[in-house]
């Protein structure tokens, strides 16, 4: 929009003369001002999640006066509507008009990342960081690109570099000591772990986290009911850490989440002293999962820390990382830094909690090794590995807030699934215990197509 505003002042139009079009939104008699108003209205529609209508107004603006801002907005809308090649064309045009537009560089890198064009995506991210060294989105995208290129250690080093640089700028008086031994770069090795009680088994807790509006209380209650249907876990305490306890069933031990830990970052609080989990074995479960078998193998885990590997999970871009949908650990001071080292700088530059675990914990056990075949993901088993795309949580911290998928769009995704899935009833693989639903779809969106979801998630016929 900078070009439009500049052109307006150069033309010496002075005060805008506003009128009303048939649809009721203000316009102007001057072409450049009218183009600018189209961009403003398109941006409003985009923030409201009406991306198709926003594109119409970006197009109207471009018909009057081509601008990098209008091409950029059009490109981000197309990316949200899952039209990546059209988004690439629009973002390239924005960069042709303004090569130094960091947001266009970052968002184009993000779209190319999804298209697996990693080399160009890396180049664009590095170009953005030259122009804006503190660009969090460029750091996140570049780290993801490096992971996809098999350079996970480079990705971790990149993020630490920016975390420490920002910490140093905030604490200049202690710069020398931080450079010698940065406190925020603690690494926890599972090989150095010593159990609290030796051979004695610690009492078990099952824990989940519910934050914001992404999942309703229904998801917590159904997980709780599924656990209570298992004799082994019927009397095991079930804890829900949440910022809103409305609608949660009796029998759930409700714990308050602290402020400032949105989305998946509430998981980090589970490792704090304040969470009150010390002295227990913890089995953590994400809410978007369906328990289809006996959890005994997972509940019996007695090692230091177990997590899913990204290998074999369709919606994960790169192998060799961690996925925290299901975790188990011995709650003790050994893992306290997972929470205590989570600075503002870390929250700024680390894309996901899973990446934070990779940066903090070495040599974790993976469920694929200690309990092979017990945890499977829906997309791999029932959609042939075809992931529908980012859900709202991923979009909130993707390459730009322009790519945020509003809640209304999730309904559209569900309708798409209703139209597209035409298959006979299939069952989860033999021996599976948990079916995870990373990104999209979620259990409630496909429940009418799978009797096993009704049986295990709703408890029908249990």
CATH homologous superfamily annotation of the largest domain: Spore Coat Polysaccharide Biosynthesis Protein SpsA, Chain A
What is the name of the CATH topology of the largest domain? Spore Coat Polysaccharide Biosynthesis Protein SpsA, Chain A
Largest sheet: 7 strands, mixed
The CATH C-level class name of the largest domain = Alpha Beta
Distance between the termini: 58 Å
CATH architecture of the largest domain: Alpha-Beta Complex
The side-by-side strand order for the widest beta sheet comes to 6-5-4-7-10-9-12
Shape: globular
> How many runs of DSSP E, i.e. beta strands?
14
Helix content: 40-55%
Q: What is the mean predicted local confidence, pLDDT?
A: 83
Plain-language structure description:
The protein is α/β, with parallel strands linked by helices. The chain has helices at residues 2-11, 31-47, 51-64, 68-80, 84-97, 102-114, 118-131, 136-148, 152-170, 175-180, 217-228, 266-269, 296-299, 337-340, 344-349, 353-360, 367-370, 378-382, 392-396, 407-420, 443-446, 451-458; strands at 18-20, 26-28, 188-189, 204-210, 238-242, 253-256, 281-285, 289-291, 305-309, 322-330, 361-362, 365-366, 375-377, 434-436. The protein folds into two domains: 2-168, Tetratricopeptide repeat domain (Serine Threonine Protein Phosphatase 5, Tetratricopeptide repeat, Alpha Horseshoe); 197-458, Alpha-Beta Complex (Spore Coat Polysaccharide Biosynthesis Protein SpsA, Chain A), CATH 3.90.550.10. The protein has 22 helices and 14 strands. The strands form four sheets. A seven-stranded mixed β-sheet has the order 6-5-4-7-10-9-12, with helices on both faces. A three-stranded mixed β-sheet has the order 8-14-13.
């Amino acid at each position: 929009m900078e070009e439009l505003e500049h052109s307006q002042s150069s033309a010496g139009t002075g005060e805008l003369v506003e009128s009303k079009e048939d649809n009721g939104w203000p316009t102007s008699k001057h072409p450049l001002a009218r183009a600018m108003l189209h961009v403003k209205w398109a941006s409003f529609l985009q923030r409201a999640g009406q991306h198709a209508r926003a594109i119409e107004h970006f197009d109207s603006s471009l018909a009057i006066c081509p601008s990098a801002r209008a091409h950029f907005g059009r490109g981000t809308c197309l990316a949200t509507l899952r039209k990546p090649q059209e988004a690439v064309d629009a973002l390239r045009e924005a960069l042709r008009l303004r090569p130094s537009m960091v947001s266009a560089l970052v968002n184009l890198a993000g779209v190319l990342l999804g298209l697996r064009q990693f080399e160009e995506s890396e180049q664009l991210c590095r170009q953005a960081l030259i122009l804006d060294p503190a660009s969090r989105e460029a750091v996140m995208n570049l780290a993801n690109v490096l992971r996809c290129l098999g350079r996970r250690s480079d990705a971790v080093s990149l993020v630490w570099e920016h975390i420490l640089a920002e910490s140093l700028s905030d604490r200049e008086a202690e710069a020398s000591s931080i450079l010698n031994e940065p406190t925020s770069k603690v690494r926890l090795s599972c090989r150095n772990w010593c159990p609290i009680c030796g051979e004695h088994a610690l009492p078990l807790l099952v824990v989940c986290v519910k934050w914001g509006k992404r999942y309703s209380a229904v998801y917590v209650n159904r997980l709780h009911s599924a656990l209570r249907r298992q004799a082994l876990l019927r009397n095991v305490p079930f804890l829900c850490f949440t910022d809103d306890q409305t609608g949660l069933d009796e029998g759930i031990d409700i714990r308050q989440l602290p402020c400032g830990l949105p989305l998946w970052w509430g998981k980090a609080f589970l490792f704090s002293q304040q969470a009150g989990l010390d002295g227990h074995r913890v089995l953590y479960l994400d809410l978007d999962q369906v328990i289809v078998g006996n959890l005994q193998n997972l509940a019996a885990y007695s090692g230091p820390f177990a997590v899913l590997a990204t290998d074999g999970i369709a919606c994960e871009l790169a192998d060799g990382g961690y996925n925290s949908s299901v975790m188990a650990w011995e709650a003790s001071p050994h893992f306290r830094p997972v929470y205590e080292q989570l600075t503002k700088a870390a929250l700024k530059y680390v894309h996901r909690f899973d990446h934070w675990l990779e940066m903090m914990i070495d040599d974790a056990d993976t469920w694929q090794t200690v309990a092979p075949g017990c945890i499977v993901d829906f997309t791999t088993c029932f959609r042939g590995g075809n992931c529908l795309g980012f859900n709202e949580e991923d979009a909130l911290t993707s390459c730009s807030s322009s790519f945020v998928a509003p809640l209304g769009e999730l309904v559209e995704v569900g309708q798409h699934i209703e139209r597209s899935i035409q298959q006979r009833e299939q069952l989860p693989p033999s021996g599976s215990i948990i079916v995870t639903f990373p990104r999209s779809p979620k259990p409630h969106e496909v429940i009418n197509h799978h009797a096993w979801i009704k049986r295990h998630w709703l408890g029908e016929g249990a």
